[in-house]
Amino acid sequence: MSVTTDKSVAQPAAPAEKTPKWSSRVLLLLLKGRTLIVLVLLVIVFRAITANYLSQSNLILMTKHVSINAILAIGVTFVILTGGIDLSVGSIAGLAGMISGGLLYSGLHIFGVTIFFSAAVVILIGIAVGAGVGAINGLLITRLGVAPFIATLGMLYVARGLADLRSNGGTFPDLSGTAARGNTGFGIIGVNSWLGVPVAVWLMIVVALVAAVTTTRTPFGRRVYALGGNERAAILSGIRATRIKISVYVISGACAALAGLLLTSELGAAYPDTATTFELNAIAAAVLGGTSLFGGRGTILGTILGAFVIGFLSDGLVLVGVSSFWQLVVKGCVIVFAVVMEQAQQRVQARVAAR
Amino acid sequence: MKSRSPRRTCGVTLGAVTALLALSACGGSSDSKSSSGSTPSTTTSESTSSTAAAGGSGSKLIVIITPSPDNVFFKAEQVAAAAEAKKLGYSTLVLSHDDDPTKQSQEVDTAISRKAAAIVLDNAGADSSVTAVQKAKTAGIPSFLIDREINKTGVAVSQIVSNNYQGATLGGQEFAKLMKNSGQYAELLGKQTDNNASIRSKGYHSVLDQYSGLKMVAQQSANWDQTEALNKTQTILQAHPNIKGIIAGNDTMALGVYAALKAAKKTNVIVTGFDGSPDVVSSILKGGIKADVLQPASQIAQMAVDQADKYIKTKSTGSPEKQSVDCVLVTPANAAKVKSFAVLP
Amino acid sequence: MTGAPPVAAEPAPVLVAETISKSYGGIEALKGVTFAARRGKVNVLVGENGAGKSTLMKILSGEEAPTSGRIVLDGAEIAFRSPGEALRAGIGIIHQELSLFPNLSIAENVFAGRELRGRGRLVDFGQERTQAAKAMARLGQQHLNPDTLVEELPIGQQQLVEIARVLAEDVRILIMDEPTSALSNHEVDVLFGVMEELRRDEVTVIYISHKLDEFRRIGDYVTVLRDGSLVAEAAMTETDTAWIVQQMVGRGQESLFSRSDSEAGDVLLEVVDLSSPGVSGPVVDSISLSLRAGEIVGIYGLMGAGRTELMECLMATRPVTSGEIRVKGKLCRTNAVAGRLDMGLALVPENRQRDGLVQTMSVKDNVLLSSLSALVRRMLLPRARETATAEKQLARLQVKSPGLEAPITELSGGNQQKVVLARALLTEPTVLLLDEPTRGVDVGAKAEIARIMTELARSGLGVLFISSELSEVLALADRILVMARGRITAEFEAGHVTERDLVAASASETVLKVEV
User: Fold this and answer.
1) Cβ neighbours of residue C351 under 8 Å, at least 6 residues apart?
2) Do B114 and B89 meet the contact criterion of CB atoms below 8 Å apart?
3) What is the spatial distance between Cα C254 and Cα B124, in angstroms, rounded to a whole number?
């Protein structure tokens, strides 16, 4: 057997650059941490302009403002990870607030009597309503094959309309309850503090921790990512797609309801327009935090950071005294910038990997 | 998954929807207890008077279009206008445009196709509403504008507004008095695209700027929204902890401001509002919010319907197109006598 | 055959890759390879999966830049920054994975990205149709309407559209990466006819293939890569099959397949009268079969015979109108994939990109995807357990990977296939279903997969696999079922069947029961 040229494996390979250039690595690191970096930059800039931006009380306040959007965004992140979208969270928050507000203010009229529930029960009912609306979203999407965008867009209107119907458009002005009715204490979740930190912030921390552990360390979380990454492969791997999808919309609805209850509790009043357009802030937070709208990529930590960027930015602008029109312009630019950065990260990542 | 029958799926979904509707509607009967007024009129309701067909030729329908009745002020307008129209023997169609000029235009189309006798309109924007009113006029339907003006004359038959500027000077004077003419204050503006937001702000400042001791340290728009007012107040309090008063461009914002002050345990900060809504009036009675400017919403709505009736019958209202009705100051002294956007004698 | 090759007679090299190296995230895919493509010849490139063939092609076609080394075209050094630039220089490529637009017509696909312009800069559809029809006719597909949407074509014809697309270009150098993997024998003949034509026109072809019989028919020169290095180069006439296999895997072909010698045990899988509806008649038509422990059963048939659909019915991803499926005597009732996995069925799908991999996830997560529930401790997934399980499984199948946390997309095709297999095996199935497990896989990986199948059968599993390669079915299966038009047309015992029998049965209209 003749061999024209036998270049054996033993032949030394040409000197190949095995490690990527350090500059690329640093760039990649910077891009991966971009949300955190933007947040730090924001804090530095605003600290330079306003003296008490970093005061303890302002930080607590800003975090409290962030908590509402963060809780909404965590729920939405679950949905986006599966490759879906939930446009109805703002309306669900409003509906949950109105139903809870109504139960506290005028009770439940049934069989000719009026029943008042304790604040804790009212809160649970509110969250159950949110979860229920989420379940309807999930059923529409999985069982009836409606596209997530359409199903939740429809629910955006339906839930808002139901919130209006609850009071014929009116406001439930006083939710403090009375001792006689045994329904005081609704203010605890929105107004009170524990160890100097608002209850709303504690709730955000709890929700975030549970969500982070769920996404990273449980089979459910892994399946959520798989479903968003490649639905066909996920189903063939034995993942019950329908069940997982309904679950993420239930989670999203429940988170939205919790956010609505916090808003209502803080205000001490429930009005049907509560949390209008909040769904956009929530989606923006998730996207800012690196969640891909195509599904399969994203983290809860990223979403939380995204919510902090949006919240710290808008509060900072108010603190400085920028007009509301410029606030919108700046917010929009930051969101688009974040997505541009995500694209840049993927390019650099590909380059580093290719070396 | 594929084996699930669509019928069963529909059933599950329908069942869930029904349950939700039931839960949502369960409070419907409690409507009268809410602050939204005593008449259970819905956003879009149609009712016909029993004393219909009172001689006049053609249509007996008056279409009433206002912003969202989420705000009790507009609710009061709807209620007062509808009640007056019914008293005069008209049927009514009450619509809401939610401050969306496009929706308003569609609703005017509805009025035209229903061959309405007149339109009573609280419009969705001084410039963006001109075309819609003109469209009605071309179709032979007279429009009677209430609460907000449009930037053109000769299109509507009447434009009856509360005198926002006069009201704001009243509010400004009371605010200055409560502040004892000195100290730091903040102002919350309404939606900056709304004409009334800037008129009220100008009215406030025509008074407040005369006192050198009064210093405005923050001015932010809260878009007429309660939650936004709450959040912005909290942030403003961070930047300016020594604030002595906050003057708000309307009542929903004043309520948001007061919620923030209560949470921060700073209820000694002076808050005034604008509108005369029941919630603020009751807060004044409890010593919360200190003063309010009442817009005679019900009175204006009644006037518009009365003039519409006269115009339908005589082709003239006997009044100039532009009319303004003065606002009234509400303080703890007269708050008890306020009912449905009117100070009872 | 000991003399030196006739150097003087060799045509001049037109495209030369000189000492090319390329590494991906620490893994060296190419180690100083020097490869020359000779003008007007068919230059065959062979090697196992992961040997570096596809990487070399990507570099030659401008899709990727080498880490070091240079490319010389007609004596001048060049550096392509994009496939477009390479195309302008006359280098075209036909990919192994289809890169068509399924939602566009044949004509639109052929001219995608370089639409023919008519008057007023508008697309000249008429001209495109005529030319596309001409290009398809050259490939023996004159009956196809150029307005047909590509997604409506069977995969073999889609491959031909891909080829027509490059043929419509005026390429001087044509790179073909496994162009025949989805083609029927007749289509392969037509393609080879076209290649003869190209050779006459002085077009240089670089041809990558795993199919020894095929490239020996068409190739002029053969180059063998192994582990990123060039191992051997020779004129095709001076080689034989055994030598090429020797070079590729470092051992002889005899050891490629070894049949399981295990005794058939109890019946594990029993299918009775299974049918599934299709657009025109049933795609699975009253199929009955059984599979015993320790048995390897091959299903042979042409494309569209209903083999993949049968697997889909077994895994509950396709609706069934009638019939029963029993695993170890227990009737499958649930209509969810998860239920079938619980019963002990597991499938390695044919199209790993579409149905196998979750591209956004890491190697580890892909391996563990089907068996997450089994790993749970106190509601969570313990990291150490995950890592240990994945590592063990990857080592068992000898997967080459830059790390457990590396994105699955960084692996070579053969290793990705092994990851999908690893996932299926982790569910500890009683019956393993494999749909074309060796499609687009090199000889070495084929041997490994065959080894794994035999091992599994020995350990008491039942293995049911689909294959379109006669030699593979004949060598591996204890029993062969032939399918045509949704039915089983013949059944053979190993050792009592020839290639001719299988081909005859796969084309037959009536059901033959061959007694052995």
Assistant:
1) none
2) no
3) 86
For C32-83, the pLDDT digits (tens) are 899 989 988 899 988 766 678 888 888 888 888 888 888 898 888 888 888 8
pLDDT 10s digits, A343-354: 787 777 776 665
- What is the secondary structure of C84-142 as a DSSP string? HHHHHTTEEEE-SS----TTSBHHHHHTTTSPPB-GGG-B-HHHHHHHHHHHHHHTT-T
Which residue of chain B has the CA closest to C320?
A: B3
Rounded-to-integer distance, Cα C179 and Cα C171, Å: 17
* pLDDT band, residue C278 (cuts 50/70/90): confident
Q: Which residue has the tokens 């709208």?
A: A293
Q: Dihedral sign for Cα B24, B25, B30, B32, please.
A: positive
What does the CA dihedral A11, A15, A19, A21 come to, rounded to 10 degrees?
-160
Tokens of A299: 């983290």
Backbone angles phi, psi at B294, to 5 degrees: -95, 125
Q: Please tell me whether residue B317 adopts helix, strand or coil conformation.
A: coil
All partners of chain A with 3 or more CB pairs under 8 angstroms: B, C
* Contact check, Cβ <8 Å, B1/C335: yes
Strand partners, B61: B91
Q: Which of A67, A68, A47 is nearest to A316 (CA)?
A: A47
pTM for the structure as a whole: 0.75
CB A223 to CB C380 under 8 A? no
Whether residue C292 contacts residue C298, with contact meaning beta carbons closer than 8 Å, is answered with no
The answer on pLDDT for B50 being more than 60 is no
Q: Do C368 and A222 touch (CB under 8 A)?
A: yes
Evaluate whether C20 touches A15 at the Cβ level (below 8 Å). Answer: no
β-pair type (B91-96, B45-47): antiparallel
Nearest CA in chain C to B4: C335
- Burial class (CB within 10 angstroms; exposed 0-12, middle 13-18, buried 19+) of A159: buried
